[in-house]
Amino acid sequence: MSRLAAVRGVATALALAAGVVAIFLAPRWVSDIKLAQMGVYFIALLGLNIVTGYTGQISLGHSAFMAIGGYTTAILVADHGVRDLWTIPLAGLVAGVAGFLVGLPALRLSGLYLALATFGLAVAMPDLLRWDKLESLTKGGQAIQLFNSPALTGKGFENVDLLGHSVTFTRAVDYLTWTVAIVLLVVAWLLLRGAPGRAFRAVRDSEVAAISSGVNIAAYKTLAFAISAAYAGIAGSLLVIAVAFADPQSFPAKLSLTLLVGVVVAGLGSLWGVVAGAAFIQFLPDVAVHFSKAQGVPDTVYGAALILIVLVLPTGVAGGLHRALTSLTSRLYTRS
């Protein structure tokens, strides 16, 4: 069995290496801004999978946490001249605190009740950002423009010096987003393979059994919410940096549903499948629009593709790949 585990480990390492190479080669065929947006989705899906896939708490409020992170960056850059790169961890921290606060009352809810409560937060967030009492902070319904700001990398249009090479602003944002994404993927992997990850899965599988094993249910549920929200905040921060502005329309409630779709496509409780979920929600609408010009048809194609994936791969893309790799590595092990 040790040889089989080694084969699977090598396969995983090769897949990760291929993914890293693809990130730096993809700009040759796909626009930088779309790849950056995919990276934003990837980070947000990582966080959502922690709270939903690993602890079983259905959250539909992640667009609100992305808004908190995005507006944190926008306000610090536009109003206080803080360098955009420094605002990324601060955005994650502020969103993480918000997630912790939301997680406290959420302890009394579960299932659909929790989903509805968090979705209410997502629905309310755009109106909250337009609230006249917060106008001095959020500019109300107006966009906070970062374009041409000295604190924004490349001011949004200038080339950026990257390791001695001059690259466009959009290419720099693409590399920045995916560098942060890879770091956060490693952090999530280390977290979930340790004691917190085992506690999260215990909470998901059976709260009664988890309590009997000494797991502090309340602590781990709120921790999962805080970590998940921090990831969403970082994603929102990177989105604002990429588009060089922030407004309430950038974080609609629909975004929360889109993220949940991405997690389902990726596979609940899977980190490696998240890239497939991010690619699905980023590129499928464009493909649908390209091949179907009639009004309403792109949404139909999007829905049909989602239904097909759920039927063919009920455990998501990650589950399907796991079964395929398990079968392949088992055959290689048997032949050897």
Contiguous low-pLDDT stretches (5 residues minimum) are none
Largest sheet: 2 strands, antiparallel
Order of helices and strands: HHHHHHEEEHHHHEHHHH
Whole-number tally of structural domains:
1
* CATH C-level: Mainly Alpha
Overall average pLDDT? 83
Note the gap between the termini.
Answer: 12 Å
Helical percentage: over 70%
The strand line-up of the biggest sheet is 1-4
Strand content: under 5%
Structural class computed from helices and strand pairing: mainly alpha
Radius of gyration, taken over Cα atoms and rounded to an integer in Å? 20 Å
The CATH architecture assignment turns out to be Orthogonal Bundle
Could you tell me the CATH topology label.
ABC transporter involved in vitamin B12 uptake, BtuC
The coarse silhouette is: globular
Instruction: Please give the number of β-strands.
Output: 4
Number of helices: 14
List the helices and strands and how they pair.
Blueprint lengths: L1 H24 L6 H23 L7 H19 L3 H23 L4 H19 L5 H4 L5 E2 L14 E3 L2 E3 L1 H24 L2 H11 L1 H6 L4 H27 L1 E2 L6 H14 L7 H18 L5 H16 L3 H20 L1
Antiparallel strand pairs: 1-4, 2-3
Helix pairs in contact: 1-14, 2-7, 2-8, 2-10, 2-11, 2-12, 3-4, 3-5, 3-10, 4-10, 7-10, 8-10, 11-12, 11-14, 12-13
